[in-house]
Amino acid sequence: MRKLMLILSIFGIGTAQVNGAVETTFQPNNTLTHTTSNDSTSASYGSSRNLYRTKSGDHIYTNEEISKAIDNLSAHAKQQKYQLASLNSRVSYENKYSDAKDSLADMKKWANQGNEEYQVKVGIIYYKGEGVRQDLVLARKMFQKAAKQGSIQGQGMLGYFYEEGFGGLKRNRSTAKEWYGKTCDKGHQYGCDQYRRLNERGY
Questions:
Q1: What angle do CA 126, 132, 137 make, to 5 degrees?
Q2: How far is 83 from 85, CA to CA, in rounded Å?
Q3: What is the CA radius of gyration of the chain?
Q4: Res 84: pLDDT
Q5: pLDDT of 68
Q6: Sheet order of strands, 13-18 included
């Protein structure tokens, strides 16, 4: 009986001890009340009579029926949990690949609004000339914006542009080393390697 009371409480049902009997009621927004009392005629068999009062009248259920109902509730709760997990997984998957659906116009708009992730994406698109005419100046501007916001990718690409003199920049390997160093400070191994390489060459 204690186990039954515990399970019922998990499903939002309150319990109270009244004169040796157990009375179970739903919260105020429910309509079911439950009174359990020992049946003297069947006490020797360890059974009990469970009286439920609803708007439609009194109903008596056996412990077996109650256990079955609780099992059904548990199964329903597990099913809901599984469905929720599946939905979360689907949302995560769609969010992960949603950028594939973004138009270049949208990405440029978000980049110009200060989104460093899209600043890097737009910069790479114009650096590689993916579906557009290559524009190293625009790519450099995007990488500069992202780098100033602390983007590791933006800082690394800007360092590369300074090293090669791309995008209208004057080649400056000392400045390139500084940008590589910023990414190294954040734990980016490639940036550390490039910083060390230029440092060994005296820049």
A1: 35
A2: 5
A3: 34
A4: 59
A5: 75
A6: 13-18, 21-26, 33-37, 49-54, 57-61
**What is the helix, strand, coil percentage profile of the chain, to 5?**
60, 15, 25
CB atoms within 10 A of CB 15: 16
Helix (H) or strand (E) holding 91: helix 63-97
> Residue 170 pLDDT more than 70?
yes
Question: Contact 128/134 with Cβ under 8 angstroms?
Answer: yes
The pLDDT confidence band at residue 158, using thresholds 50, 70 and 90, is: very high
Q: Where in the chain does DSSP place strands (E)? A: 13-18, 21-26, 33-37, 49-54, 57-61
Q: In this model, does residue 56 exceed pLDDT 80?
A: no
Burial class of residue 75 in the structure, from the number of CB atoms within 10 Å of its CB (0-12 exposed, 13-18 middle, 19+ buried): exposed
CA distance 173 to 129: 25
Which has the higher per-residue pLDDT, 158 or 90? 158
Q: Strand, helix or coil at 118?
A: helix
pLDDT at 124 over 70: yes
